[in-house]
Design brief:
Strand content: under 5%
Radius of gyration: 21 Å
Strand order of the largest sheet: 1-2
Mean pLDDT: 95
Largest sheet: 2 strands, antiparallel
Number of strands: 2
Order of helices and strands: HHHHHHHHHHEEHHH
Shape: globular
Number of helices: 13
Helix content: 55-70%
Low-confidence stretches: none
Structural class: mainly alpha
Bound molecules: fe (ii) ion
Length: 311
């Protein structure tokens, strides 16, 4: 065996026996590239995802709701930072990743390009968007790349708080006035289909999935996770007293799963390519934050260098 072959077989064995690949281990270039792309996209989603809810911080209806929302939005910033750190262990630089986000060279989850129109959206984002994120991320705790898997353990604990605060907010609104109940249903109607799109395109249109599953970066296909999310959400909607905007949604006794309609994949493709309701605004806000933070980064770097010199 050549040395590359023996490294490859060691890597294959590590993955096949469910051990973790660590940053200093040899890994195939494709594995490294796939992870950088996936972790960066995940980190960007956490950071851009602060915006739709962050928009309601200044007009939260009570001090309690404001405190909860602030904690939640701050958690998302933390998730972004863990994930950028995990990506950096693969040899990329966070500044470089941010530049790629701003230039559009790297993507983030399409869901954050929809506007949050009422405070009920805060609840529905927590319930459905964080709920879908949990379905996606719990299996990632067993991802083959150590730093990613470990980051996910902490992230998932916080996501479960996010989902509960959303559900609790909606329960409170559903016990309120007719107008409040209508706000909740309206928000559910707007977010349901985009939430289903969070699992990515159908399996037969997801070319990288098979390789990612073989590398055990991913553990389940997009369609499996989408099904799990639908099955989980239906009884929760019943408890809340809301419906999902899908006439095809019904229990299938034979499959022991819910049948459901097809998301508008053309809309998904449009939004991913940059033409969603809020794409420009989301990137403009991120760009402004990056520009405004330049002096802080420069000062921190200069301070660190001086500190090292002094010691
Ligand atoms: Fe998060
Ligand atoms: Fe979250």
């Amino acid at each position: 065996m050549t040395s590359t072959e023996s490294l490859q077989s060691e890597f294959d064995h590590t993955v096949a026996s469910d051990q973790r690949v660590e940053p200093r281990d040899w890994m195939p270039d494709g594995y490294r590239r796939t992870l950088i792309r996936q972790i960066a996209q995940h980190a960007h989603s956490e950071i851009i995802g602060m915006q739709p809810e962050g928009a309601w911080l200044a007009s939260a209806p009570s001090l309690r709701r404001k405190a909860i929302l602030m904690a939640k939005v701050q958690d998302e910033a933390g998730h972004g930072l863990y994930l950028y750190s995990a990506a950096e262990t693969l040899g990329v630089d966070r500044g470089e990743l941010t530049a790629k986000l701003i230039s559009g060279a790297q993507k983030y989850s399409s869901i954050f390009n929809y506007p949050s129109l009422s405070f009920a959206d805060v609840g529905v984002i927590g319930w459905l968007v964080d709920g879908a994120a949990i379905c996606n991320q719990v299996p990632l705790c067993r991802s083959s790349f150590g730093p990613y898997a470990r980051a996910m353990v902490r992230v998932c604990k916080e996501e479960s708080f996010h989902q509960r605060q959303g559900f609790e907010l909606l329960m409170t609104m559903m016990r309120g006035t007719v107008e409040q109940r209508e706000m909740v249903q309206d928000a559910v109607n707007r977010w349901w289909w985009p939430a289903l799109m969070m699992f990515g395109p159908p399996d037969d249109k997801s070319p990288n999935s098979a390789q990612s599953m073989q590398w055990r970066i991913k553990r389940h296909t997009n369609d499996e996770l989408r099904q799990r999310f639908v099955d989980m959400s239906v009884p929760q909607a019943e408890t809340l007293g809301v419906t999902f905007p899908d006439p095809e949604l019904k229990w299938n006794e034979q499959r022991q799963h819910h049948d459901f309609g097809t998301p508008d994949w053309d809309e998904f493709a449009r939004i991913i390519s940059g033409d969603g309701p809020c794409n420009k605004e989301r990137i403009a806000v991120r760009r402004a934050a990056d520009d405004e933070g330049t002096w802080v980064r420069e000062a921190a770097t200069a301070f660190a260098q001086r500190g090292e010199g002094a010691r």
